[in-house]
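To close the chapter, one final illustration. This time we ask the reader to focus less on the individual chains and more on the assembly as a whole: which components sit near each other, and how the overall shape emerges from the parts.
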Amino acid sequence: MPEKIKRLALIGIGLIGSSIARGACEYGLAEEIVVQTRRPETLEAAERLGLGDRYTLSAAEAAEGADLVIASVPVGAYGAVAEEIGPVLKPGAIVSDVGSVKAAVIRQVTPFLPEHAHFVPAHPVAGTEYSGPEAGFADLFRSRWCILTPPEGTDAAALASVRAFWEGLGSNVETMTPEHHDMVLAITSHVPHLIAYNIVGTAADLEAVTESEVMKFAAGGFRDFTRIAASDPTMWRDVFLNNKEAVLEMLGRFNEDLSALQRAIRWGDGDALFELFNRTRAIRRGIIAAGQETAEPDFGRAAAAKTV
Ligand SMILES: NC(=O)c1ccc[n+]([C@@H]2O[C@H](COP(=O)([O-])OP(=O)(O)OC[C@H]3O[C@@H](n4cnc5c(N)ncnc54)[C@H](O)[C@@H]3O)[C@@H](O)[C@H]2O)c1
Ligand SMILES: O=C(O)C(=O)C[C@]1(C(=O)O)C=C[C@@H](O)C=C1
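The assembled structure is written out below.
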């Protein structure tokens, strides 16, 4: 059991912030939780759901006197949050985030934090296509990776404290550089989302495919793409704008491999197609065998449905 955080401030209380609140409460990780969000309606929803002990619309008020501040806002908004909370952070306060992109968030946040505070960037690699405080659930992070990307010279005790917090939520914690994180996540998360947005957009644009037909025949693969393509537009706009280089690099590789597949189809090269499909099937089976995924993933839908 990690040492309890005395005062935990949560800035932003959507899917991720509210899941942290629920998990921290369920696993007894904090003595007091202060919840902040910008919109009164969202704050009221958080209060109705009992996600914290105190509620405020001011990030500075939430962060004042907090031992650990975790911001869970869109990737493009962390700088503004840091600017607001920087002046009120107490000596030794730890600031963290959950952004899906790391280098850009570190660039935004660092200039606004005082010397006496510690910044430990984090990214829980767990989510769903839902957003808002109702969508969260305590076990979202259980058995999922949480990647910490501490800048050089990060205070060891602050790093240990953030690691213990995420382990307390059930995550497996790994550390890496922000640049490496952004490259890995570009291919495992960001490009897959772009592909989903693109294929659903293309299908919807095709004249012959009316919206009702898209829904009517969306039973298998396409339906899975529509789930991903339902993810929050603000969040994903910010991810692509802030991980531009890595995404463009991975898209280049992706396009080359897609052209090779196009060529194999054009020239009837069944062996090339079979070899790739066989290899990718083995990858999926390896993931299931390693216990990282069930054969029929539910992506937290059952848990989210209970709370909505
Ligand atoms: N959704 C996922 O699957 C997932 C997974 C891991 C990490 N993340 C990261 O978590 C963060 C939050 O995502 P989420 O899914 O909880 O989103 P969400 O839309 O459910 O919640 C976002 C929260 O940020 C607040 N917010 C929105 N714009 C803001 C702004 N300009 N300034 C201050 N606050 C603002 C909203 O009021 C809300 O409280 C993002 O950085 C995202 O990259 C998301
Ligand atoms: O399961 C989903 O719906 C997700 O998209 C979660 C997912 C992912 O790509 O794996 C999305 C973005 C986050 O930064 C981390 C996790």
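The pocket of prephenic acid (ligand 2) is lined by residues 100, 125-129, 189, 231, 299 (CB under 6 Å). The first strand starts at residue 5 and ends at 11. With these observations in hand, you are ready for the problems at the end of the chapter.
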